[in-house]
């Protein structure tokens, strides 16, 4: 794999720093622009979704007022959401892709106004694991949030899509086990998502979480695995987090701190 | 102990709800006003403070722009902060209490514009444990944040105060072990702080965290224990959380997810 840095090199005066867990090597850091404030907005919590809180609490119209880029899901867990250039796409388990309407509701979504502070061109095959490691080292610090926009040509990509649920809603662990994993080959499209720090586990998915839609808007979903042939990785640094909790009684009664939270997040997001 | 509810009783149409962990009994809930949105603002993270990130990242002038009420600490861990009616008080380990100036810096603070949605008068002696349990049951749901303002006459109250640190800053666990616990008897004053949900552990202190200053502004600190003879509990519900991470290199390099995070929070805040 060949990576070509497109960053503006800026000097980064360094004191005596301890290396942070998961922090980038110094060589990588020095290439970054100065850190500027940028907000990531989120409605509800990953832990609420895991507990079966699928009632939409916010319209897409309101959500898009907080950012033009992001991911989430829809009322009743009716498909994966990916927002690109202020357009929300709904990727359903039946394989359909539609432009969502602004009056649809979301029970969980994370958005930001995407401003790339780092970009890197990729040439040569790159696996998901390799890209994930690259992203870990692109950021200034593992303690911030990062929006990730990855535009690329994929040798293959596998995705999953949540299935619309009926009331009474079951916890997410009972909904994802029978989701089909769909494999597409020779596809071009965009992955959008976030890399969030460890202290966000439960609030969001600690680590990388990305959704995909192809350029023709005919397939996509929650990204499971891939090999990318070439592409552009763009990273948007987030220093501020705003979380808006639902007002619904279902949310008020949710169990947001189950003993097996980490396990549930992994099962729901990483299988 | 006698408690007198001062809430406006409103009907609360209820479906079939599962009881949440730590949630209030239904009888308590029905007394509440409808939930309205309210933001709690925080600069930096409890886990960063535990890791020794004591460099102030925000002036009090900026902090007070986000709320007129709250708590925190000062640059170099130089005392406990309590903010009441937009006045920040600095409670130092030497026993002094001064009105902090707006150009002082804070490395960690949580504030809100205090709007009480629930208030309850207390008559008869009430221990910290009893009051804590009462607060747990006053709220609409354990899944929201709560500002707590407790104005009272205390039979006695014990407080601790962090000590100004020198560079290089040690982790908080090494700073709090020799803090004196000061006991005051027959004192009247105000406790200010927050009750935060379990998913905030590390971000803040999950559970109750309050600071105290007496009415004469001559003593106070981080509250350890007390018996309150009479007083007024006021609770401000927070549905939105905004966290602003520091831009400093020290923060970027901090270890925010140590294996013993829970233990460190308990040691720093609850001894």
Radius of gyration of chain A over all CA atoms, rounded: 18 Å
Beta-strand content of chain A: 35-45%
What is the helix/strand order of chain A? EHEHEHEEEEEEEHEEEEEHH
Low-confidence stretches of chain A: 1-31
Major sheet attributes of chain A: 7 strands, mixed
CA(first)-CA(last) distance of chain A: 26 Å
Tally of extended strands of chain A?
Answer: 15
CATH class of chain A: Alpha Beta
Overall mean confidence score, pLDDT of chain A: 87
What structural keywords apply?
homodimer; 60s Ribosomal Protein L30, Chain: A; 6 helices; 15 strands; globular
Description:
The structure is a homodimer of 271-residue chains. The first copy, chain A, is mainly beta and 271 residues long. Chain A has one domain: 60s Ribosomal Protein L30, Chain: A (2-Layer Sandwich). In chain A, 14% of the residues lie in helices and 40% in strands. Chain A has helices spanning 26-29, 46-50, 60-64, 128-138, 249-252, 261-269; strands spanning 2-5, 39-43, 58-59, 69-73, 80-84, 87-91, 97-99, 105-106, 108-112, 118-127, 145-160, 182-196, 207-214, 220-238, 240-244. Chain A has a seven-stranded mixed sheet. In chain A, strands 1, 10, 11, 12, 13 and 14 form a six-stranded antiparallel sheet that branches. A two-stranded antiparallel ribbon of chain A has the order 3-8. In chain A, a hairpin with a 5-residue loop joins strand 6 (87-91) and strand 7 (97-99). Chain A is globular and about 50 Å long. The interface between A and B is large, with 39 and 39 residues. Strand 15 (240-244) of chain A pairs antiparallel with strand 15 (240-244) of chain B. Chains A, B: InterPro entries: Acetolactate_a_deCO2ase. Chains A, B: This is Alpha-acetolactate decarboxylase. Chains A, B: Its EC number is 4.1.1.5. Chains A, B: Pfam families: AAL_decarboxy.
């Amino acid at each position: 794999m060949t990576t070509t840095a497109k960053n503006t090199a800026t000097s980064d005066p360094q004191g005596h720093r301890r290396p942070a867990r998961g922090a980038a090597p110094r060589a990588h850091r020095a290439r970054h622009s100065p850190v500027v404030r940028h907000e990531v907005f989120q409605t509800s919590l990953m832990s609420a979704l895991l507990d079966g809180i699928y009632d939409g609490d916010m319209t897409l119209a309101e959500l898009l007022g907080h950012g033009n880029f992001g991911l989430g899901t829809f009322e009743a867990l009716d498909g994966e959401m990916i927002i690109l250039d202020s357009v929300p796409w709904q990727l359903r388990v039946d394989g359909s892709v539609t432009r969502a309407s602004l009056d649809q509701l979301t029970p969980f979504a994370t958005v930001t106004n995407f401003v790339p502070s780092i970009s890197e061109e990729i040439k040569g095959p790159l696996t998901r694991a390799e890209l994930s490691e690259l992203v870990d080292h692109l950021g200034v610090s593992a303690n911030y949030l990062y929006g990730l926009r990855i535009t690329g040509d994929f040798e293959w990509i596998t995705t999953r899509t949540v299935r619309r649920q009926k009331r009474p809603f079951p916890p997410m662990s009972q909904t994802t086990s029978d989701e089909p994993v769909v494999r597409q080959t020779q596809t071009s499209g965009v992955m959008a998502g976030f890399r969030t720090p460890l202290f966000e586990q439960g609030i969001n998915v600690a680590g990388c979480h990305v959704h995909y839609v192809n350029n023709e808007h005919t397939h996509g979903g929650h990204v499971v695995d891939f090999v990318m042939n070439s592409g552009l990785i763009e990273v948007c640094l987030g220093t501020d987090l705003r979380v808006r909790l639902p007002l619904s009684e279902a949310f008020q009664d949710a169990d947001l701190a189950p003993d097996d939270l980490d396990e549930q997040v992994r099962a729901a997001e990483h299988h």
